[in-house]
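[09:14] KT: can someone run the structure on this one? pasting the chain below
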Amino acid sequence: MKQAATALTSWAKAIRKALDAAGVDSARLFAEAGLDSAALDDPNARYAVDATTRLWRLAVTATGDEAFGLTVARHINQTTFHALGYSLTASNTLREAFERMLRYFRLISDAADLTFELDGDRYRFALCPPAHGPQPAPESLDAFTFLVVRLCRGLYRREFSPLAVNLQRPMPHNISAFERAFRAPLKFGAAQNEIWFAREVFEQKLEGANPELARHNDEVVVRYLAQMQKQNLRARVHAALIEQLPQGEPSQEKIAEAVHMSPRNFQRKLAEEGTSYTELLNDTRRDLALSYVRDPGYSLGEITYLLGFSDASSFNRAFKRWTGQAPSAYRNGKPDKA
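[09:31] RB: done, structure tokens below
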């Protein structure tokens, strides 16, 4: 049976701050939504998404504010999303920050998927709620979309604006709050919740870039996800691989032992999840390689060691298979010559 979707309580904490600022009895609404307010004091705690959706709807009714999601986004800060907030802030570029957000979005919520892709000279970022089952409150999608824009302004420039913002929600009666928030062409009733950005801006080095800080906080995020998803074998294998790769490529039997399973049961469970040990090993190495190669603090020799490759040529072949470029060319931003 699929587990119910959850989200960090920090989302609800921002809702409480917005309610309190509006003079609304937040404690009453939390109780009505079936949420234990005491969990707000635990930075690792999570709420069921269906309960936070009830809270969103109660909050919008109580405030009478159809732009309440935009208000909540203004109450979110760097600590709201655990260590991921620090990783995003320390990213080298906006592109890297968004790639990191995609990789670790499950920390924030596992109720939706994100996509981030290059389309010509623009980047497209989309938040995709589940196709079936209960849908999130429109205001929660407003909040996250505005939060993404605010992230760009905080990391790049305060006057930054996206090229366009499309929202699935119906057009509000008063769109001025949305116009002031996004400062970009808006479309309501769109097929998807998406934001379009200029490619040039997303590939510029950020002033606050700190690869070492980003990497350390990524490790905290990975440990949190492994703990959160004890029943998710992929996450447990990912964490075990990160720990063991510096000692050389671990065998399937060794990773099975690390996640407390017999080799046969381990292989069967992976097959049930539609994957294999070889695939997970490759995916983990690729994700780590992209992160490490972008960090000038690592030599290519160190990266070869950290990823468990026996020699530099093996790493070079693998990296070229993943990216189409040699590690040195990727790091320098120069395409390989044919």
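[09:33] KT: thanks! Strands lie at 6-8, 46-48, 113-119, 122-128, 164-167, 186-188, 193-198.
[09:34] RB: yep, looked fine to me
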